[in-house]
Fold this sequence. Notes:
Two copies of one chain form a homodimer. In chain A, about 50% of the residues lie in helices and about 10% in strands. Chain A is an alpha/beta fold. Chain A has one domain (about 70-350): Nicotinate-nucleotide-dimethylbenzimidazole phosphoribosyltransferase (CobT), large domain (Rossmann fold). Chain A has a six-stranded parallel sheet with strand order 3-2-1-4-5-6, sandwiched between helices. The N and C termini of chain A lie far apart (about 70 Å). The model of chain A has no long low-confidence stretch (mean pLDDT about 95). The interface between A and B is large, with 58 and 58 residues.
Amino acid sequence: MNLNHKENEKKLYSLLMENLSRVGILDARALNEAQKKLDNLTKPKGSLGRLEELAMQIAGISGRMVSRFDNKTIFTMAGDHGVTEEKVSTYPKEVTPQMVFNFLSGKAAINVLAKHIGAEVMVVDMGVSFDFEDHPFLINKKVGYGTRNMAREPAMTREEAMQSILNGIETCKLATVKKTEPDIGTDIIGTGDMGIGNTTASSAIAAVICDADVADVTGLGTGLNEEGLHNKINVIRKAIKINKPDKEDAIDILAKVGGFEIGGIAGLIIGAAINRIPVVIDGFISGAGALIALKLCPDTKHFMIASHQSVEKGHIAILSKLGLKPLFNLDLRLGEGTGAALGINFAEASLKIMNEMATFSEAKVSGKSE
Amino acid sequence: MNLNHKENEKKLYSLLMENLSRVGILDARALNEAQKKLDNLTKPKGSLGRLEELAMQIAGISGRMVSRFDNKTIFTMAGDHGVTEEKVSTYPKEVTPQMVFNFLSGKAAINVLAKHIGAEVMVVDMGVSFDFEDHPFLINKKVGYGTRNMAREPAMTREEAMQSILNGIETCKLATVKKTEPDIGTDIIGTGDMGIGNTTASSAIAAVICDADVADVTGLGTGLNEEGLHNKINVIRKAIKINKPDKEDAIDILAKVGGFEIGGIAGLIIGAAINRIPVVIDGFISGAGALIALKLCPDTKHFMIASHQSVEKGHIAILSKLGLKPLFNLDLRLGEGTGAALGINFAEASLKIMNEMATFSEAKVSGKSE
C-alpha cells in the first residue's frame, strides 16, 4: 500500500467516524407523548400491539408527533460479486444488470409492491459490473465493477469498504427530503438489494458477526440443490479461512467477505439514524448490512424496523444478533426490498392509528373499570 | 317447545343445509393457471412465498384470473352477551353500542385501518341490546337484544343460533357486488367483531370444538387481572357443565355458549364460500366463528385466509384446528376486523404481483441454469 492509499484510508476513516458520532438515541419526551396519546384512544391500552410500538418508535426517532410520511423510498442497492466464479448461485451474474433494467422499467416485484404502498424505488448502483446510462431512478454510487473473489483474496480493499458505507450514507442524505413543516411529516426509507452471489457474502458476514458455524447461516439463495449448498458452504469457509476477517472490526469484515451493496445498505441505515428517520430493513442481505451498521455503531439499532423473517437459513441468527423482532413472516426470499415495502405499509398504518382514531372522551365511550 | 317453534326450527335447518350444500372446493384449473403465471415472472420460483400462495388461493376461489379487488368490505358484527352479568369483562356492556356509534362515526381503529387499505366498514347489528336508527353503514340483522347468561342457561335457542348464521350468509350475499366483467375483478371481505363479553363465548366454543381444557384457551380479553381470569375460566367451565353442548353439533355449541355476532361471522364465512369470494379472518372471536363454519361445512376452509395470530391465549388452538397459518403476528388483541384489514392488504399485494410483474422473456432476464 503506497502513501496515497494510506492517506486516503485515514481520510475515509475519519469521515466515517465523524458520521457515526452524529447518531443519537430515541427522544424520550416524544416517546412519552406518543404513549400518552395512544393510551387515550378508543381501544384497550396496548391492544394494537406492535402497531402501537411502531408509532412510538417513529415518534422517538423523529423527536416529534409525526402524522404522516411525506416520502417513502425503497433503495434497492445493486452490486456484483467476484465469488460467483465459484458457482455459488444458480443464476448467471449477468442477471444483476438485467434486473437493474427491470427495476428501472418499473416491472419487477419491488416496483409492484412499492407502488402498492405508494413508495418510490430508487436503484443505487453500488458496484455492478456494467456501465449504466443516466436514469431518473438510478443513483450512481459505484465503488467498483463487482468485488473480487473472496474465496481467493479479499473482496475489496479497506478503502473500498469504507467508501461503500460512505456512499450509502450520502445516498440517504441526498434522497431524504424533509421538506415539510417540522410538526407534520417525515421521510421513511426501506432497504433492498440486488446482486447475484450476495447471499454468499451475507452468510459469510453473518457467520463472523454472529459467531456461527457457516453451515448454520448458509441457505439455498435463489434455489441451490444439496450439492450446490455444500459447495457454497465450502466456499464461504475457505473465504473466511484465507482472509481471516477480524470479528471486532466491521470494516475488515465488509472488506474481506462483504459486498458493495451490503456496505451501501449499512450506510443507508447509518444515514437514516443520522437524519433521524425510520429505516425498514428487508430480509437476509439487508440484515447483513444491518449487522455491519450495528457493529460500527450499536445505537443505529433504535432506528431500524425489521420487516420480515426470510426463508433464508441464516436470517434468524441475524435478527437475533440485531435484537429485532420481524413484523411478519411470508416465507419471502426475493430481496430487492420487497419485504421492506410491506413493512413500511405497517409503519404507515401505525401513524394513522395514532392520528386518526377518536379518544374515549371524544367518542363518549366508557372506560375500563379499575 | 311448541309446534310453531318446532316447525320454524325445521324450516331454518333445511334452509341452512341448502346453503351449505352450495359450498364447493377450489377450482383446480384456475389454480394451475395461476401457478404457471407466477412461475414465469422475474423472480426465482416461489421466492415470494405466501404472497404467491395467496394469489393462487384467490384464483382457485374465484375460478378465474382476477386482477384486482373491486369491493373490499370489513363486516364488523356486533352483539351483546348475557354472560357479562358474571363480571367476565373489564368494560361495561354499554360499550358495545357506544363502539357501534364510534364505528359509524368513522373514528375507531377499524375505520382507520379500513381507510388505509381502501376498504369499507359495514357494521352489522347481530344482537346488540340497543335500538339503532338507520344509518348507511349499519346493517340491521338483529336476532335479539343480547344473548342470555350462559352460566345459567343456554345463550340462545337453536332457532336463534341458526337465524344468526343465516343472517350472516344473507349479509354476505347482499353486500357482495360482483358488478364487474367476470374476468377482471372480485370482491373480498374481512370479518370483524364487537361485543363486550365475546372472548368468554369464543373461549367456550374453542374449548368444546378444539377439545381443550378451558384454562388453555381462555385469555385476558380486554385486560383482566389474574383474579378476573380465574373467574372467567370458572364461568366458562360452569357454562359448559350446565349446558352440555354436543361437540359434534355446531348449532348446539353456538346456541348454548356462543353469541349472535359469532354466528353472524360463521354465516359470513359460509356466504363467502357460496359466493366464491375470499374471506379474511380476523383474530380470536372471528376464529371462533370460523370454527362454527368449519364444523358445519369443512370445505369452507378453502375460502378462508387467516390474517394474524392474536395475543389472546386460545387463538393458537383455533388456528391449529382450522389448519390455517396466519400471515402475521403484530400482538393484536382488539378485534373489530383490524387484523383482517391488514390481511386484505397482503391479499391485494399478491394480486398485483401476479398481474403487474414482467415475465423473464418480457424483461430479457436470463433464467436459472438447470
